[in-house]
From TrEMBL:
The lineage of its organism: Eukaryota, Metazoa, Chordata, Craniata, Vertebrata. Its main location: membrane. SUPFAM superfamilies: Cadherin-like. It comes from Crypturellus undulatus. PROSITE patterns: CADHERIN_1, CADHERIN_2. InterPro entries: Cadherin-like_dom, Cadherin-like_sf, Cadherin_CS, Cadherin_N, Protocadherin/Cadherin-CA. GO terms for molecular function: calcium ion binding. The chain crosses the membrane at residues 718-741. This is PCDGH protein. It is found in: Cell membrane. Keywords: Calcium, Cell adhesion, Cell membrane, Glycoprotein, Membrane, Repeat, Signal, Transmembrane, Transmembrane helix. GO terms for cellular component: plasma membrane. The gene is Pcdhgb5_0.
Amino acid sequence: TEGQVHRRRGAVGMGSGQVVQHRAAAGHVAVLALLLPLCCRAAPERLRYAIPEETGSGSVVGPLARDLGLRPADLPTRQLRLLSGSRRQLKYFAVSADTGHLYVSERLDREEMCGDSASCSVTFEAMVQNPLNVFKVDVDIQDINDNSPVFSEPTLELEIGELILPGARFPLEMAQDPDVGSNSQLSYQLTENPFFRLDVKETPNGKKQPELVLEAALDREKQSSFQMVLTAQDGGSPARSGTVQIRINVTDANDNAPVFSKGTYETRVRENVPTGSLVLQVRATDADAGSNGRVSYSFSNVPDAVRAVFSIDSDSGDIHNVGILDFEERKEYTFGVAARDGGGLTGHSQVHIEITDENDNAPQITTLLVTDTIPEDSPPGTMVALVNVHDADSGENGKVWCELEGESPLSIVASSGSSYKVVTVSALDSERASEHNVTVVASDRGSPSLSSRAALSLSVSDVNDNAPVFEEAAYSAYVSENNAAGAAVLRVRARDADAGANGRVSYWLVGGSAGEAAAAAAPYVSVEARSGTLYAQRSFDYEQCREFAVEVRAQDGGSPSRSSTATVRVFVLDLNDNAPHVLWPTAATPGSPGSSSVVSGPFEVVPRSAEAGYLVSKVVAVDADSGRNAWLSYELVQATEPALFRVALHSGEVRTARAVSERDAARQRLVVAVKDHGQPALSATATLHVVLAESLQEALPALSERAAGAESPSDLQFYLVLALALLCALFVLSVALAVAARLRRA
């Protein structure tokens, strides 16, 4: 047993490949592989093996994994398997998941698989994944001499007239051997006989036609019959043979055998012609008269496959088709026909019918591999499907081109052999299109062209490639002070274009719920993780904090997660919750809205010579609120002489409204109301005491009268101020006297 492995790699020149195996007598198969050097371990694009027919199931064809450059340790991850558009092709072979060897899974019978075709091969594809590669594999089925030559009948009857001259030839039936090549090359031998010898003629199709040649004149009275054995032997090793008994009856008058007009009849018939169509007419003539010249036609040792397709009219020699002629099943038929006269003599001829192809087969699309779902971040060029397209026709009728129908980021490219890959050509986006439906259209180049369609559906799975996006980059919220703790402040919203958990958004305060709280802002608000609603943690006070800002982070549920942030600025709105506060002449006691607080104040001395507009004093007040709530107005609400004084509405200055007269009381008491512009308005009052006198000494009696009736802490304060003024005056007087005395002494 000898064998050889070759590899073919196109233009790279890796060689052609063939594994030749011969079956030994015991039926064992041995494979000898002469591999390329280890430095040339690149996987071939096409592998070719050869194996003899009748190889038993389980026999190894070749080390497929090793020839593809795969190590045994790589097999689980590379997932080596066989693919084919025809299940009939795959039923004969399988690949071992453990060793990667290609082995026979069903007995191989070349004659059953390929008939009388000169070559016989099974073609399929080997696919490996991670990364994906597809390789063409051809297995040639080599013929072995497992069939013996066979004659149609065990006995051949001939009738030869005794008057036929020596040298006459009588064609004999050819034996049939379904093998091919040298295994079907037949040679013939005839048992020795002094009256007959065997001659062999070669027909135009290369076959040998045995003929019986008359060597000596026959005499029916001496010998009326002859018996011989014709042996057909093929050229196989060891050779096989078959025999037929030849019985010759010597007759009185029939001295001419039928003769065909042609040694070989040839014709062409298109496939799919209607049943019963005339295919060919053969014609033979016989020079005899009467019944000896009447010729009948029949098939000469043809297999059942021919009889199932053709019939011959015994009288006319017309050959019709009785079955369907299919170019894809068989491209030609060669068989023998015989013409027999009434006297028993026969003539033989050959018929060769060639079937021409018609474009009667649409391309067949077989999905070998399909990915139902693909991540949207798959790079361009990712394969999503592998299809095999096969057209049983030949020539232009069998040439196929493929395209995709439907708008999608997919394209179809040719792979090895008749396989095509559907790949991505651009980026996928599940947010724009979560599913792509395309149709693979395979069309042949026949006229008219035939086509087939196969629908493919691809789902694009979502990956977390989108971060949440806030509806606004910055939010502003306005909250009135003195709000209730827990009140909703604002709702932020972020949208994530992803789906499922990748698009589920939760909210956190930056440095807050998800980490450390911001020192100033976090105590004021909190955020609900699901809804994004911000709630006040406590009541706000405009006078303490007028505005603050927090950052809210929106985070999705992907892994790894994606997030974005937005700034929320909260403005506290002022309410009129602070009454005016009097700084001068004395601080007023705050009153409730609509009420006043009475405050006693110091006194002011106004000379009686004061004219109208004389500045008596100024009431000074402030309001902790802002805006309109802090706008203050002043009003004189009570006075001893209301017509004597007036108060400026906005400045709070107290001036005389007219000139002071002698009739005016020496002691005047003024009550000034300070009111803000809030809703409702808050107010405070200030009390101012005015003494009408030209000098302090003149004012003392009035002050004394006031002191006598003083009953309140305000009067006591008045006396203390007065005492302080007197002390100051005495001190100034003492200093003046001392200076005057020193000057006088000098």
